[in-house]
Amino acid sequence: MIGVLLRELRLAWRHGADTIGALLFFFVAGSLFPLAIGPGPQMLARIAPGVVWVCALLAALLPLDRLFGADLEDGSLDQLMVSGVAPSLIAAGKAAAHWLVTGLPLLVAAGPLAVMLQMPAVALPALLAGLTLGTLVLSLLGTAAASVVLGARRGSVLLPVLILPLAVPVLIFGAAAADAAATGLSARGELLLLAAMLALCLPAGLVAAGAGLRAAVQ
Question: What's the whole-model pTM score?
Fold first, then answer.
């Protein structure tokens, strides 16, 4: 798993277009909301948590279609599958690399975007804590979905169709945590629910991704 992770990080360093593209999409999509609804500080502050979360969710989807696709095309996936490493561990390395290359930069960029959208400073810790848990869940869900559609026709179209319904609870509770903090309430309940989702997706997502990889190479 560590070998897969290091390999993915080296490839991401050599080809950083996916990370840069996800960050650019994140900022551009977030900056469109003030243009559409107006620059009123009160309105922007009220919708800021939802805007940040929606933009982060959509930006995290961008690199997923190449998560396993390039390895399937050049035969690397076949070599990994016969190397003796459990498919779920291969998926774990891929999921960790996706979060480090995409989720972590989005987490860093979320603060400036939230400030631009007039989010109260008191809500920023809850927003970032929720995004940390939520992006981990999205990486696991995305890895499982990418393995399921691997080799399928129109897989890049099916991928968001599979992920978006599963990501709705993450989006709801993540935005609710920041909203609660902005109004002076405790965000502990929403963050605990996100942590519970992560605890559920960690084994289930990796097992599902391993099964998808086995089916793709057979």
Answer: 0.90
